[in-house]
Amino acid sequence: MWGIRLIYNSEISLSRQIFLSFMERILTGEIKQGEALPSTRELAKGLGVSRNTVCEAYDMLWTEGYIVSRQGAPSRVANGLHIKHKKAESPKDKKREQAQVLWDFKTGQPDLTHFPWQLWSQIMREAACELPIRELEYSGPKGYEPLCEEIAQWLFRSRSMEVSPEDIFITSGATQAIRLLVEILHKDGQPFALENPSHPGIRTVITDKGYPLLWMPVDGQGADISILKDKEISAVYVTPSHQFPLGGILPARRRAMLLSLAIEKNFYVIEDDYDSEFRYSGAPISPIYSMDSSHVIYVGTFSKTMFPALRLGFAVIPKPLQGKWKHYRNYMDVQNPVFEQAALAKFLQKRKMDKHVQHMRRIYGEKRNILLSSIEHTFGPSAHPWGDDSGLHVALQFPGMEFGYQFVRDCRETGIRVSPLPRYCLTQTEHTDKLLMGYGHLNHIQIQEGIRVLHQLIKFNNPQV
């Protein structure tokens, strides 16, 4: 009756099914405004349900304004409810279905198969059981204090950094830290200085706010700091321990110049230390923060040391900025979930992080060696790796070649995902002879096969290779 079909074994009550059926037909105009609905007794008889069920449905329609009723008169559809929907236009050119990615050289992806998931689950359970009830209240923008204390000790063990726990603020990864710092450090009319090339996400965070940028050229030793000498800027963002994406290490002379300018011109340096745990020849590089912490904001994350979905990072905030940080964080999302913070504190306190990083450093070092030896064996002198012996990616230079959008499309159709360097640059005409290749999440066979297929594809387009 009235096109209403009831499902008796549904989790939705019969009265609500009647309500939803009328609502949908009223909104689409199938039932016109002013049209009278059947009496509750008539509809109940036609549907084979109790009158109380229909009365409950009509009451919902009346309460939400879909019908109007008067004593002794039939219920009628209210005015102004018909919503005219435009039909979705089908695209003129359907995108071709992309081939399955078989060899995915994306960057920044750790190997999750070696993470101690059983141990982590156990620690999560322990943290949940031991967490005091008071920690389930709003705790504010600082973060779980035991985690701040463990991070301070972790930084001392892994990087020889002396940091007070009261200066450590927990974040939802490094991206949130950068977004907050852009808000805090912005000065009207003064640009943020970024490396060129750099991660597109960083410049997006800044340009989305409409703030200007100043680009620092990058060579084999990182950013050229001299370009800042005569400039007034809001802040400088750098990746000094392993420049992303080219991989250079910012030398002490450039670091000293950057700190001197920061003190002289009163700006802050945002130091993003995104993967310095994974260095395969020697100890991790000392951060700029260790030289002078007065004008440096150190940003770290556990996305690569543990797993990206954890969404926990931290920032070491100088005291003059802590008031603003708390204000902006309070009105962003207040705090991170406490259970993950408590578990991570235990993971660090039990030295499980130290053991895991040591284990993964060996595994990633082997993968890097497999990648580089495969490249040397396959490409010979026509491919040249850039950067320090660290991290989870390699920048490869192929002198005399150019890799554009067509090359990326050809790779995807072949089942390969690689990133040409120009997508990380100010313009698409820079570093056109370089590819960025991540390897952390790939096994040895995937690396070797992927390099072989990549060589065939490049050789097809460049017979001289």
TrEMBL record:
Record has GTP-binding as a keyword: no
PROSITE patterns, alphabetized: HTH_GNTR (PS50949)
GO terms of molecular function: DNA binding; DNA-binding transcription factor activity; pyridoxal phosphate binding; transaminase activity
Domain of life of the organism encoding this protein: Bacteria
UniProt keyword Transcription, yes or no: yes
Domain HTH gntR-type: 12-80
SUPFAM superfamilies to which the protein is assigned, alphabetical: PLP-dependent transferases, Winged helix' DNA-binding domain
Keywords recorded for this protein, A-Z: Aminotransferase, DNA-binding, Pyridoxal phosphate, Transcription, Transcription regulation, Transferase
Gene3D superfamilies referenced in this protein's UniProt entry, alphabetically: Type I PLP-dependent aspartate aminotransferase-like (Major domain), Winged helix-like DNA-binding domain superfamily/Winged helix DNA-binding domain
SMART domains, A to Z: HTH_GNTR
InterPro entries: Aminotransferase_I/II_large, HTH_trans_reg/aminotransferase, PyrdxlP-dep_Trfase, PyrdxlP-dep_Trfase_major, Tscrpt_reg_HTH_GntR, WH-like_DNA-bd_sf, WH_DNA-bd_sf
Family: In the C-terminal section; belongs to the class-I pyridoxal-phosphate-dependent aminotransferase family.
Matches recorded under PANTHER family: HTH-TYPE TRANSCRIPTIONAL REGULATORY PROTEIN GABR (PTHR46577)
Protein name, UniProt field: Aminotransferase class I/II-fold pyridoxal phosphate-dependent enzyme
Taxonomic lineage: Bacteria, Bacillati, Bacillota, Clostridia, Lachnospirales
